[in-house]
Amino acid sequence: MQLFPCPFCGPRDETEFHYGGDAGNARPDGVDVPIERWADYLYLRTNPKGTAREIWVHMNCGEFFVMERDTVTHKVLSSTALGGEHAA
């Protein structure tokens, strides 16, 4: 098991968290968005090897945050509340 740092509750078991998606993948807004743009949003990912910024939610407290982690080593580099507060 791995410990993930919740910016609100501190280190917790990874089973308490749910992945929310890539940070920075902005949802298209408006009703006149071309279908190709929706397909890009839903299905296309760069899937880099190395550092990734991801949205996570801690299911116990219900708070969303950005976690930066290495996709190769699984080491968590930082955990930041969406409001700007920071935890290591």
Automatic annotation (TrEMBL):
Broad class of enzyme this protein falls into: oxidoreductase
A GO molecular function held by the record: sarcosine oxidase activity
Pfam families (alphabetical): SoxD (PF04267)
Keyword Oxidoreductase recorded: yes
Signal sequence, renumbered to the chain: none
Alphabetically ordered keywords of this record: Oxidoreductase
UniProt keyword Chaperone present: no
Cited InterPro entries: SoxD, SoxD_sf
GO biological process: tetrahydrofolate metabolic process
E.C. no: 1.5.3.1
Protein name: Sarcosine oxidase subunit delta
Lineage: Bacteria, Pseudomonadati, Pseudomonadota, Alphaproteobacteria, Hyphomicrobiales
